[in-house]
Amino acid sequence: MEATPAAAAPVTKARTVSERARPIGEITTENAKTWSTGVEELDRVLGGGIVSGAVVLLAGEPGVGKSTLLLDVASRAAQNTRTVLYVTGEESASQVRLRAERIGALRPRLLLAAETDLSTVLGHVEDVQPDLLVVDSVQTIASDAIDSSAGSVSQVREVAASLIRVAKERGMAVVLVGHVTKDGSIAGPRVLEHLVDVVCQFEGDRHSRLRLVRAVKNRYGPTDEVGCFDLSEVGIVGLTDPSGLFLSQHAHPVPGTCVSVTLEGRRPLVSEVQALVAPTNANNPRRATSGLDNSRVSMILAVLERRAGARLSGNDVYVSTVGGVRLAEPACDLAVALAVAGAAIDRPLAAGTIAIGEVGLAGEVRPVAGVGRRLAEAARLGFTSAFVPAGTRDAAPAPEGMEVHEVPDVLTALSRAAFPIVGSRGERGERG
Length: 432
Known about the structure:
Elements: E1 34-35, H1 40-46, E2 50-51, E3 55-60, H2 66-79, E4 84-88, H3 93-103, E5 110-114, H4 118-128, E6 132-136, H5 153-170, E7 173-178, H6 191-195, E8 198-203, E9 210-218, E10 226-232, E11 235-238, E12 257-264, E13 267-279, E14 287-290, H7 294-307, E15 315-321, H8 333-345, E16 353-355, E17 358-359, E18 365-366, H9 371-380, E19 385-389, H10 392-395, E20 403-407, H11 410-416
Parallel strand pairs: 3-7, 3-8, 4-5, 4-6, 6-7, 14-15, 16-19, 19-20
Antiparallel strand pairs: 1-2, 8-9, 9-10, 10-11, 12-13, 13-15, 17-18
Helix pairs in contact: 7-8
């Protein structure tokens, strides 16, 4: 029996080019210039503004404020003589109109359409010819050419590819709203993030007014910038100086509080850590945290117990941040340690003191990045004393009017803070 010959693999033939390749120096950049969205904090994240023909994916949890932010952006763009088409697939046009009225976003050049069909959306683009298209959201739009429901992998891929193609052909900026899954990743095919030019994450706690926008991918700018926003009843407002949101107001220093400076992208944010240590008769004392990584706080408590002689095993320990901010950076470890130590002996830190440094299991205080920017921000807000890792003053001179204390380990930091909680060679220290 003769073997069936294998089918020949398809070969792609060369096609006559419509426009010849040119030297890169002759390519014009006129169509790739940025224009401001009118929202300074968003421009910071995008790298100065939005580029004509660029496609931006803004992802975030439900209710975090994505639609409110983009409606404000659309309104400001329409106010600056640009035509904006806002396509909503999740709400009715009347619902969006009510939100626009509440935040003052009613503009003649801001056009609104409630559509879920891709062909109809493209028809609106042909008719309106907008400078900016906002689609809320990409998971609600479906194409008749794909035999599956809206939001499926194939539908999201087809919708995104069609809108990207139109954006590049027309030089029209497009902003797509994307949903996220339970673990915080963007819903839909992974290829979606590769297709678009910019991917931004919109973050924030439902119980906090603070919202952060950070770029995960940006073909036109940096990915280490963060935009800060304040979400209120009248809309969402950019915060050029958000540090005040994370500090409590006390007439006098309070035991169990310590201020640190964290870096969100390249922006330093001054944040306060609060701790409460309370005696308990329970066999297993509570360890509760809010706004901090629970495992990292547990590690710091163990270091205080073993390396500094702190008596915490018979106490409940509660550690929290102020203003709902989440501190995941190790640079806040020293502030957590000083806050817990102060709460344990009921003694406050000196007024105007901050603490910066990562705490290791051996009790050492390790250097962190960007100390100069952190100290400068703290000095600007009126702080006069800082506990920092050893060797910091050589790399980052102290700002004028600030006294910098270099501490090689937690034991030294507690001693410099005048906290009699430390012991010698593992002995228990005095307990307040």
